Amino acid sequence: MDKELLKQKIETVFANFKSAIYQHTDINGKRADGGWSVGEIADHIIKGTGAQFGQTKKTERPYDQNADSIKNLFLNFQLKFPAAPILQPEAKEYSASELFIVLEGNKDNLISMIEQEDLTETCIDITLPVWGTLTKYEWLVLIENHIIRHTKQVTDFDTVAA
After folding, report:
1. Which range marks the domain in which residue 101 is found?
2. Is pLDDT of 159 > 70?
C-alpha cells in the first residue's frame, strides 16, 4: 500500500470538489431536476467524510479486496443511489466559506489517519450492503470515489432557470 499516493488522492479529490463548488455563485439554488443544491451536496460529503470508523479488528482477507468493486460502483454514473439517512443533508441555507472550513478539517483528519493508522484493519461498527465490513483502506477508496461522483454532479449541475 502506497500511503503517499493515497494521501495525494485524498488531497486531490477534496481540492477538485471545492473547486467545483467555487464555480457556483449560488450554492443554495435548486437543481432543475429537483435534486439537492450544491450546498446540500457539500453537506452530504461532509457527513460522509467526517465519520469515525469506530472499532476495528485484524483483517482476515486481503485489505483491498473490495477496492475495485467500490470504485466501479461509485464511478458508474448511470446508477443512482439513495443516500443513507445519516448522510442526508440538512435543508438550510449554506455558506461556501463555512463548508470549505469543515471540508478542510475532514480532509486533514483523513490525512492524519492515513499517516498514523493501520489501514489494513477491518472496521466492525458499520456493515454495508454488498461488501459487509470494510477495511480502513477500503473506506478511503469509498470516500475518494464518492467525492469524485459528487464532484461530477456539482460540475454538471443544472439550476432552475430564473
Report:
1. 3-82+91-155
2. no
